[in-house]
C-alpha cells in the first residue's frame, strides 16, 4: 500500500511512503505520529489503521483542519 505524506507547502507535491516503511519506523520507535495528505482516500487511511492494529498498535486517527475551506485538512495517525 502506498500513501501520501502531508505536504510542507501548499503548492508542492506530497511524498509517497510504503506501508512497510511505516511499519519499520514503528518497529524502531514503538510510537510515532504520522501526518498524511488529504489526497489519500479515507478507505486507504482505514486500511492503514487496520493494518497497524493487526500488528498490535493502538491507533488514534483524526482529520485536522488547518483552514476554513472544506479541502484544507490532513490526516493524523498516532500509533502507540
Keywords:
80 residues, three-stranded antiparallel sheet, two-stranded antiparallel sheet
Characterization of the model:
With about 80 residues, this protein is α+β, with helices and mostly antiparallel strands. It has one domain. The chain has 2 helices and 5 strands. A 3-stranded antiparallel β-sheet has the order 3-5-4. A two-stranded antiparallel ribbon has the order 1-2. A hairpin with a 7-residue loop joins strand 4 and strand 5. The longest helix is centred in the middle third of the chain and has 13 residues. The radius of gyration is 12 Å and the shape is globular.
| Helix/sheet category | alpha+beta
| Order of strands, widest sheet | 3-5-4
Number of strands: 5
Helix count? 2
Largest sheet: 3 strands, antiparallel
**Distance, first to last CA:** 21 Å
Instruction: Give the number of domains.
Output: 1
Unreliable stretches (pLDDT < 50, length at least 5) are none
Mean pLDDT: 94
Rg calculated over all Cα atoms: 12 Å
User: Into which percent range does the helicity of residues fall?
Assistant: 25-40%
Strand content: 25-35%
Based on CA inertia axes, which overall geometry fits?
A: globular
Q: Strand-and-helix sequence, N→C?
A: EEHEHEE
Protein name: HP0268 domain-containing protein
InterPro entries: HP0268 (IPR040748)
